[in-house]
Structures are given as C-alpha cells and as structure tokens.
Amino acid sequence: MRIDFRLRPLGEITPWRDADGSNPYLGWFGLTDGWYWIAVGNVELFRYSRAILAHWVREAGGEPWIARMGGLPYVDYQVAQLWSDLLWFLPDVLAPVPPQLAVALASGAWTQWEQEAEVAVMEALPKHEAINLLYGATRWLGKRELDSAYLVSGPLTRCWSDGSQVHLKWDNQERMLYGMPAWEASVGHHVISPAAFHDAIGDFNERFLRRMADRVAIAQGEWERPEVTLDPHLAESQRANTQWGQGRLTTGAQQEPDDWDTVLASIARIEALPRFVSGKARRLS
C-alpha cells in the first residue's frame, strides 16, 4: 500500500476568493492543491475510469485530457484533505471490531443486513426512534469509512481491523458520473498487517509534510503573484500541522472509543423486529 500525490505548480493554483469574487488569497490548505491516489496491490484508488477520461477528452474538443491535466488521471483536489482524513480515522481503523462484524464486512453480508435493517426499523418504529436505533447499530462503521463526500460520486472505501489484519474494501459499482462508472477500481478487497497500514500512512505524512515545508519556504521567499494575497502565517500553520500529524501517528488512541455493548445491543434489538423474526432478512447473530 502506498499513498501518493503530486502538488500543482504554485503559479497554477486557483486562489480562494470572497463570496463576491474579490480578495484572491491562498493559505496553507490552498497551497496543497494537486492530485492524489492510493496504490493497493495492483489497484489504484481515486483513479477515474477510462470512460470518464475519454468523456473529458471529448469535452475538451479532442485535446488529450491527461496531457492537459499534467498526466494524472486522479482526483484533483487539495492533498491536505486526504492527509487529514487518513490521519483522523487511523486510530479507529486499528481498533479491532467484534468478530461477527468483521466477518460480515469481509463477506459482504453487512451490506445486505444494513439495507434490511433500515427497512425493518422504518416499518416498525416511529421515525425518530428508528433513526436513533440505526445510528447506534452502525455509527462504528462510519468512523471506518474514508471520507469522500466532498467529491461528486466519491468512492466508497472502508477500512477495519479484525484484530490481526487490516482490511481495505472498496465498492464503487454504483458511483456514476455522466451515466458512466466514475472510478477505475470498481470493487475489491485487500488485506495488510496493522503495522504496514500504519507505516503507509506515516510514510505519506512524512513525504507530504516535507514537500509542504519546501513549498511554504519557496512561497514566502519567492512569491510571484502580487494579485494573490499569501497568508502571512504559513510557517505557523506548517508547524501546527506537523505536530498534529505526528500526534495522530504516535498516540494510537481513538478520539471516542467504540461502545461495542451498545452496538451489539442495537443490532440485537433490530433483529428482534418483525422483518427479521419472520425470516425476511438475514441475521448477523
């Protein structure tokens, strides 16, 4: 597993602006503009599908899209977004889930169960109570999904530990753009050791922050875009982000530990509802 990126040249970064379009400026987050992807075995996550790339070539009037965009068919966004998301969910991923949930996730049974559970609680309970019960049963998994809500049809990537291995599972079969599959990696499952998962994120953190330290120094010393205001506190932001990243890698503590008793009790309560009792839905227990 390798998390990779490339930063956009400083002179090509689109600045942030106020709501009325005035006051173009760039801060630390904005300076991380670029491309990123995750290589897992022989698969690249966050790589757009060939159909989408071909569509963008046609939109550009035949101009080779890949050449126009720097030769990178990956997500085009601030790299700091992926960096912070990976570091944020790292402790949750490394915290093992109960065996029956780990098996259900790996086999795909969880997806069916979750769909049936939503129908079951909505059939049997008032809406507010149904939502709270579902939240109690499924919140643990949301903490183990790599955030992609900021992307159109963002990829679905789940990571969890069964106590001995970390599982990465992606399913983008329903993620569509222009009526076509959005992502080259459609569906898959990869297993690595917890140490290797931690080291991959640690390696990315080191490479990214080292590159950003160079970028901050260059921007502060050689800024050649007088029409764009540069945040005067870039060095402070770099130090703060470096400390935060190191802290996330070294503490290993979850921000909020999972309450597995509540999770399993919520699942049991859902499976006691008529849809499960009647045999219309598959049970985890």
- Count of DSSP H/I helices: 10
Order of helices and strands: EEEEHHEHHHHEEEEEHEHHH
Q: Which class best fits the helix and strand makeup?
A: alpha+beta
What are the low-pLDDT stretches, counting only 5+ consecutive residues below 50?
Answer: none
Total strand count, please?
11
Largest sheet: 4 strands, antiparallel
Distance between the termini: 33 Å
Strand residues, percent: 15-25%
Tally of discrete structural domains: 1
The pLDDT mean sits at: 94
Any chance you could write out the topology, listing elements then pairs?
Blueprint: E1 2-7, E2 25-26, E3 33-40, E4 43-45, H1 50-59, H2 65-68, E5 75-78, H3 79-94, H4 99-107, H5 109-124, H6 127-142, E6 157-161, E7 166-171, E8 176-177, E9 180-181, E10 187-192, H7 194-222, E11 229-230, H8 234-251, H9 260-271, H10 274-277
Parallel strand pairs: 2-11
Antiparallel strand pairs: 1-3, 3-4, 3-5, 6-7, 7-10, 8-9
Helix pairs in contact: 3-7, 3-8, 5-6, 6-9, 7-8
Structure description:
- Helix 5 runs antiparallel to helix 6.
- The chain has one domain (2-97, 144-254).
- The longest helix has 29 residues, at 194-222.
- The strands form 4 sheets. Strands 1, 3, 4 and 5 form a 4-stranded antiparallel sheet that branches. A 3-stranded antiparallel sheet has the order 6-7-10. Strands 2-11 form a two-stranded parallel sheet.
- By secondary structure, it is of the alpha+beta class.
- Helix content is 47%, strand content 16%.
- The chain has helices at 50-59, 65-68, 79-94, 99-107, 109-124, 127-142, 194-222, 234-251, 260-271, 274-277, and strands at 2-7, 25-26, 33-40, 43-45, 75-78, 157-161, 166-171, 176-177, 180-181, 187-192, 229-230.
